[in-house]
Amino acid sequence: MTSAAVSRLVTAWLATISSEHTRARYRRDLGRLAGWLMGHRGRGLLATRAEDVIAYAHTLTGHRHDLDHRAHPLRRHDTIATKATAWSSFFAHCVRAGLLESNPVQQARALDPAAAYPPHPRNPASGADADALRALVAEAHRDPWLGGSLGAALVGLLVATQWRPERITTRTLADLSERGVHDGEQWLPLPAAVVGYLGAWCAERPDVVGTHVFYERSGLRRISAIDLMRLVLRSAERAGLGDGLTATRAARSAAEITERGESIELPPLAELRRSAPAPEQLALPDDPREHDPVQPALIPLPQQ
């Protein structure tokens, strides 16, 4: 089913819900599930499996638990269970329409009834320390598809700003300055290493019509939030950090380190080029997860 057809299906489902508030919440919750599925599983909504529902529920933090993050017994309206109700409503609509044989949320509840709740706020899921985040940036520089200054700039900006991926990939050239980055009325100073990554990338950036900072080296397509999410997952796997370190969790870990008054000393670009060199040529497969390691690379890196 095409994305346009799925969009029409979601619109038809939302039209069956009378409450405007509920429609808005259900649209938001389903959209976040769809983004996670595409970024982490490479599947669309209609290909959702029970294991996907369980895995996504486990990624949601204690801030969405029935107890808030300070462990006060306060009933919240944004729990995993309420989100699962939204997902289940959509999939039930698909079952009634004959598009699915069964509801994956109901299957997930049968497999793992506890999947509706994340780790307790007083025992949150472990994040990444400063060394892990430095390794993440190094492996992003080494990435065979988005490596070099582009990969370092994307992940370095994620660690430095602690923004969500979509806020990073939508930056324009006008947002950058010699020492920081603008986001609306907010100006955020950046570490010298990240400024160096961005400066090198802007010098190598393809001469495209658009004003956005991050494009593929071919200049044919902008880098999307999903591209950045996949880059972080690939880099974390190569660095031995496991498959649980997502872009959002990396940003959250960086924020926690900063709140403790500690700093994350990212390596300068010259050091990355020595210790974690990018491939001399970068490949551009249709789907990076299905890339054949022996496939010849397509785009040579600029001369240093």
From TrEMBL:
Family annotation (SUPFAM superfamilies): DNA breaking-rejoining enzymes
Span of domain Core-binding (CB): 4-95
Domain of life the protein comes from: Bacteria
Span list, region Disordered: 254-304
GO molecular function: DNA binding
Transmembrane segments: none
PROSITE patterns for this protein: CB
Record key words, sorted: DNA-binding
Gene3D superfamilies on file: 1.10.150.130
Name of this chain's protein: Site-specific recombinase XerC
Naturally occurring in which organism (per UniProt): Allokutzneria albata
